[in-house]
Amino acid sequence: MFSTKLAGGAAALLLLGAAAPVAAQAPATEARNDYSKGENWLCLPGRDDACAIDNTATIVKADGSMSKETWKADPNAPIDCFYVYPTVSLDKGVISDMTAGPEERRVIEQQFARFASKCKVYAPLYRQFTLTALRAAAMPGATPPAGPRPQTGYNDVVDAWNHYLQHENKGRGVVLIGHSQGSGVLTQLIANEIDGKPVQKQLVSALLLGTNLPVEAGKDTGTFKSVPLCRSTSQVGCAVAYASFRANSPPPANTRFGRPREPGSTMQAACVNPAALGGGKGELHAYLSSGALIAAESGGPPRWTTTGAKVETPFVSVPGLLSAECASANGLNYLAIHVNADPNDPRTDDITGDVIAGGVVQKDWGLHLIDANLAMGNLVDLVGTQSKAYLAK
C-alpha cells in the first residue's frame, strides 16, 4: 500500500490560523463597517455567494468502490448558523481589508457551506489579523508587527453579530461556528455578549474548532460561566471545542494547542469529541478535500485507491478510515485522530492535513489545517439533532 502526500504550502495558505490573543484596542477613529451592506458578508441566506457551492462528495469504501453522495441546502431551515473564519487573509498589512479574496471564499467551502443543509447561513467579512502578519511574527527574532491588532476583527464581528440579531435573526435559534482565530473571536463574543445575557436562550450551540477553550479541571465550564461543554446530541446551549492531532503524533512540548494560551492559567483546554460527545472513541464522518486545492503543491491530487481511480467531486468521504477520542498527556488535552489503515485493502492508508514547512512536518500544529474537515459530517449531524431538541423546547 501507499501513503498519500501530505498537504503543503497550498493547503496552508487556505486554512492556517492561530487563535491569537487579543491585544490593545484599535484606534477609536477607525471606521466601523456597515453590515447592512451585502458586500460585507461572505454568506447570507438565499444568495448566490461563497456558500452557494457544490458539496457533492465521492464515498470511497475500504474495498475501493466509489459512489457519489449528493447534497442540497435547506432554504427553510428552522435555525441559523453564524460563522467566523480562521486566519486566511493574504493581504499585506497587519489586518485585512474588507474585500473578499479567493482565500476567504475557499475556507467557506471547506468549513461552512455544508451546514446550509441544516441552518440558514451567515458569515461576515471582518478585518482579521492576517496570515502575512502571523508568518512575520513567527520568524526567528521577529518583533510584533506595527499597526492595529486583532481587537479590530473582534469589533467587526460584534458589529456583524448585533446587526444580525437586530435585522436578520427574528428570534430564531443560532449555532455559532468558528475555527482558530475565528474560534478565538467567538470565545470573546460568547463571554462578553451572550453568557448570562437574555440572548443566551437562543444559543443552540457553539462549535469552536481548532482552539484552546479554557475550562476548570474536571468541569464543563470555565471561561463560559453558563455555557457548558456538550455531552449529548440532544443537549442545547452548549459548546464543542477541540484541537486535533494524529494519535501516533501527540502534541510536543512546544505545542500550540492542548492547553490554555493565557500565562499562568490553572484551567485546562477543553476537548469534546464530535464523534462521541459522551466520551470514548467514535467514528469520524469526514469530508476531505478531493485534492484540487493542493494539486499545485503536491504535483497532483492524492490517490484515494491503489487503482488511481479518478475522483471528480469536490469532497471525499472515507467511511471507517478515521476515528477519534479525547486524550490527555503531560497536562495537554486534545482530540486524537486514528487512521485505521489496512495495507491489504485498495483504499489509501493515510490522509493529508499536516502543516509542512521546508519539507518538515510541524508537529506543534497537529492536524490544524483539517480540524473542521475531519468531523464535518458529525458536526452537521449534531446541528441537525440539536436543532430538533431546541425547537422541541
Automatic annotation (TrEMBL):
Question: InterPro entries, alphabetically?
Answer: AB_hydrolase_fold (IPR029058), DUF3089 (IPR021440)
What are the transmembrane regions? none
Query: Gene3D superfamilies per the record?
Result: alpha/beta hydrolase
> The organism sits in which domain of life?
Bacteria
Q: Which N-terminal stretch is annotated as signal sequence?
A: 1-24
Q: Does the keyword Signal apply?
A: yes
Presence of the UniProt keyword Methyltransferase in the record: no
Tell me which UniProt keywords the record has, alphabetically: Signal
Please name the Pfam families in this protein's record.
DUF3089
Q: Which SUPFAM superfamilies match?
A: alpha/beta-Hydrolases
- Recorded protein name is Pimeloyl-ACP methyl ester carboxylesterase
